[in-house]
Design goal:
The complex is a heterodimer of chains A (about 100) and B (about 80).
Chain A (H helix, E strand, L loop, with lengths): L1 H24 L3 H27 L6 H27 L15
Helix pairs in contact in A: 1-2, 2-3
Chain B lengths: L1 H22 L3 H25 L4 H27 L1
Helix pairs in contact in B: 1-2, 2-3
The chains are: A mainly alpha (about 100), B mainly alpha (about 80).
């Protein structure tokens, strides 16, 4: 039980770290949305699930389960909301090099 | 030991995210940085509540998550109407 909780917690922390590096590094709002939306939800859910497993599913940890459920619902809603605003505000995606004219 | 390592790793990723929150060239970048910072702070509050022996902090994390979700969605809709 303890090893499983450690695996869950450190997988979530790895997802959080990689996603944050992507948020700081990528050069476009849509790319940053991809990094943020994938990493934040998975990171928070895995870390809290690790604590839930570590405590052995006590009844007094039901707020942790409620927090996991809340993030499972609202993480994609936040990502969709910011992406929809960026699309409706005519934010241009970053230009990629056009490879069709090279050959 | 586990609590210290969780705090350090979340702190490092919080630094990357705060860079986007402060230096984001657009309003939407700052909003994205804000949503990511609140996710990290929820992790820190839950760690404090579970491993620090103060269970009030888990309730605080839930309230913080609800309020940050409402704020992000409302600000995103407001910017959309504005442009």
């Amino acid at each position: 039980m303890n090893v499983l909780s450690l695996i869950l917690i450190f997988t979530g922390l790895l997802a959080t770290l990689i996603g944050s590096y992507g948020i700081a590094k990528l050069g476009d709002i849509y790319s940053r949305l991809q990094a943020s939306g994938a990493s934040d939800t998975v990171g928070v859910i895995l870390v809290l699930l690790g604590f839930l497993v570590r405590n052995g599913f006590r009844f007094s940890d039901s707020f942790l389960a409620l927090l996991i459920l809340f993030f499972f619902v609202t993480g994609p809603i936040v990502t969709h909301s910011i992406g929809k605003t960026a699309f409706l505000s005519n934010v241009e995606p970053a230009k990629t090099p056009d490879r069709s004219e090279e050959d | 030991m586990l609590r210290l390592s969780v705090d350090v790793i979340v702190g490092i990723s919080l630094t990357f995210t705060l860079y986007r929150l402060f230096y984001g060239p657009d309003v939407l970048d700052r909003l994205l940085g804000y949503s990511s910072v609140t996710a990290k702070i929820v992790i820190l509050l839950a760690v404090e509540g579970v491993m620090g022996g103060r269970e009030v902090f888990v309730n605080l994390a839930l309230i913080y998550a609800i309020l940050s979700f409402l704020g992000i969605v409302v600000i995103a809709r407001y910017i959309e109407r504005e442009v």
